[in-house]
TrEMBL record:
InterPro entries: EF-4, EFG_III/V, EFG_V-like, EFTu-like_2, G_TR_CS, LepA_C_sf, LepA_CTD, LepA_IV. It comes from Thiohalorhabdus denitrificans. GO terms for biological process: positive regulation of translation. NCBIfam families: lepA (TIGR01393), small_GTP (TIGR00231). Keywords: Cell membrane, GTP-binding, Hydrolase, Membrane, Nucleotide-binding, Protein biosynthesis. This is Elongation factor 4.
Length: 598
């Protein structure tokens, strides 16, 4: 295939704006699958992904398109994940392309993440083609949304394609535009092999599968290859393309996209962003910008039944095979027993892993409130990374504490700017910029402590703006803050899994609120339960869960059989998420109560 007849592109779209539906239309138009094979949304492989509507792992499809000029073109669609937690993967997908479709729901308008991703595409010199999707909806306002794209993103949108992925409108027009406007890839077919790992995933039978964009040279069956970031070498077993069915080829040539299988045991052997080269004739240097993706959010995961510890370990090991950004190590909690401290890219990543452990591996877990990584400087001149609040050194040893900050861009309708600013200020944010657009939206830029963002910031932002605000963020670095550890004591015993690191100004308020919440969550027992919040040895709040009077239980277990059964079922249900801490039973909600204190 001549380079002239290749087009590599991504789709930038906010969740639900129609990326998967559109991709399916392309596959249909290009005849990649027989009609009976067209399951709904073939591009999203995992069930969980379908339910949540999130594309977790980038995938690609090769489309063979016969254009109006009579020529057949190879269109490589490189799918991008749609959430900020995976922004590094988005940037790798974009680097592998010469063009991008910016798909915007014509009944909604532009969202912050699409703005950020489009900026990135423009930065990488991609040709961006705006597409207004869902024009079949009566509420579609293509002219207003075009104005918004021009105003907020700053790219020409007058000749944006008006499309409906659902009704099949504008599909060929988009494909024609890709052929006409996106430049063909450049590359030296004779040079030493250089291929970018855009994505990698674990296959039970094949080991790691790497999705690559070949920049120079070729990747062939039987070739000895080297991963440039790790220096590890492998022999290529299979190369091929997704159509979306996998189809084997003899080689992948410069300018092309496809998968490489090389007996790599785990995804660590083929990291996203790494460069593959020929082991015998290596490229002098790797492609720029490889980044080790580091977890930013940590939480403790504990089985509710201690005999599930081994199962949890095996399940984490399996998930990790496919996800090199997931970290875990054994951790022991005085309150919760044996479990794991896990590191995630963000809160969404954490929720996905949790859900998969429970759903696919049938585990019942207690999860502690997520925390960020603090840098603690001690008087002895050491710097300690603290991923668990319970492990914060004693006050007397601490010189200072630094916490991570993020730079967040929030796009919100003008009428709701006031509320968003109030929330950001409450979350210790510092305003950096405020940009009013003519299209009625405002871009609010804040520097926010990540610790506040991983609690309930997104949820509150979404609910207070009825879902109209959208957010994009990036890590902006560490800064010193006046932080203290807030402990919770239940009947005088510190429950380590409930400790939190909070700003001193909020400590009293948070302590009081948390104690109050726990009082409502911890079931009454035959004795009084004292709940205290403390800073060091100083108790700042106290609540009591009163003992049950004997006759209450007696009444519950009275004659009514159905009621009794219901009660027992309810208890059984409830038990799943309970943990015995000393003589007190604490429900799962209690461990996450700190997330919803506002
Ligand atoms: P993604 O999250 O960007 O991949 O979005 P999906 O392709 O999953 O689409 C989200 C929802 O919008 C689904 O319910 C689709 O059926 C619907 N949808 C997609 N395209 C259109 C369209 O052109 N018109 C209408 N009315 N609905 C659409
Ligand atoms: Mg999708």
């Amino acid at each position: 295939m001549k380079l002239d007849n290749i087009r590599n592109f991504s789709i930038i779209a906010h969740i639900d704006h129609g990326k998967s539906t559109l991709a399916d239309r392309f596959i249909q138009e290009c005849g990649g699958l027989a009609d009976r094979e067209m399951a709904d949304q073939v591009l999203d492989g995992m069930d969980l992904e379908r339910e949540r509507g999130i594309t977790i792992k980038a995938q690609s499809v090769r489309l063979l398109y016969t254009a109006d000029d009579g020529e057949t073109y190879t269109l490589n669609l490189i799918d991008t994940p749609g959430h900020v937690d995976f922004s590094y993967e988005v940037s790798r997908s974009l680097v592998a392309c010469e063009g991008a479709l910016l798909v915007v729901d014509a009944s909604q308008g532009v969202e912050a993440q699409s703005v950020a991703n489009t900026y990135q595409a423009v930065e990488y010199d991609l040709e961006v083609i705006p597409v207004l999707n869902k024009i079949d909806l009566p509420s579609a306002e293509p002219e207003r949304v075009k104005g918004e794209i021009e105003e907020v993103i700053g790219i020409e949108a007058e000749d944006a394609v008006e499309a409906s992925a659902k009704e099949g409108i504008g599909i060929r027009e988009i494909l024609e535009r890709l052929v006409r406007d996106v430049p063909p890839p450049e590359g030296d077919p004779e040079g030493p092999a250089k291929a970018l790992v855009v994505d990698s995933w674990y296959d039970k039978y094949q080991g790691a599968v790497a999705l690559v964009r070949v920049m120079n040279g070729s990747i062939r069956k039987g070739q000895r290859i080297q991963m440039m970031a790790t220096g590890r070498t492998f022999t290529v077993g299979t190369v091929g393309v997704m159509t979306p069915k996998p189809v084997e080829l003899d080689s992948l040539e410069a300018g092309g996209v496809g998968f490489v299988i090389a007996g790599i045991k785990d995804v660590d052997g083929a990291k996203v962003g790494d460069t593959i080269t020929d082991a015998e004739r290596p490229a002098p240097e790797p492609l720029p910008g490889f980044q080790e993706v580091k977890p930013q959010v940590f939480a403790g995961l504990y089985p509710t039944e201690s005999d599930q510890y081994e199962e949890l370990r095996d399940a984490l090991a399996k998930l990790r095979l496919n996800d090199s950004s997931l970290q875990y190590e054994p951790e022991t909690s005085h309150a919760l027993g044996f479990g794991f401290r896990c590191g995630f890219l963000g809160k969404l990543h954490m929720e996905i892993i949790q859900e998969r452990l429970e759903r696919e591996y049938d585990l019942d877990l207690i999860t502690t409130a997520p925390t960020v990584v603090y840098l603690v400087h001690t008087h002895t001149g050491e710097t300690v990374r603290v991923e668990n609040p319970a492990e914060l050194p004693e006050v007397g040893e601490i010189e200072s504490i630094e916490e991570p900050f993020m730079l967040a861009n929030i796009l919100v309708p003008q009428s709701q700017v006031g509320e968003v600013i109030r929330l950001a200020e409450e979350k210790r944010g510092r305003q950096k910029n405020l940009h009013y657009t003519n299209a009625g939206q405002v871009m609010v830029t804040y520097e926010l402590p990540m610790n506040e963002v991983v609690t309930d910031f997104f949820e509150r932002l979404k609910s207070m703006t009825s879902g109209y605000a959208s957010i994009d963020y990036e890590l902006s670095g560490y800064q010193a803050s006046d932080l203290v550890r807030l402990d919770i004591l239940v009947n005088e015993d510190r429950v380590d899994a409930l400790s939190l690191i909070v700003h001193r100004d909020q400590a009293y308020y948070r302590g009081r609120e948390l104690a109050k919440k726990l009082k409502d969550m911890i079931p009454r027992q035959m004795f009084d339960i004292a709940i205290q919040a403390s800073l060091g040895s100083r108790v700042i709040a106290r609540e009591t869960v009163k003992a049950l009077r004997k006759n209450v239980t007696a009444k519950c277990y009275g004659g009514d059989v159905t009621r009794k059964r219901k009660l027992m079922e309810k208890q059984k249900e409830g038990k799943k998420r309970m943990k015995q801490v000393g003589s007190v039973t604490i429900p799962q909600e209690a461990f996450l109560a700190a997330l919803s204190v506002d």
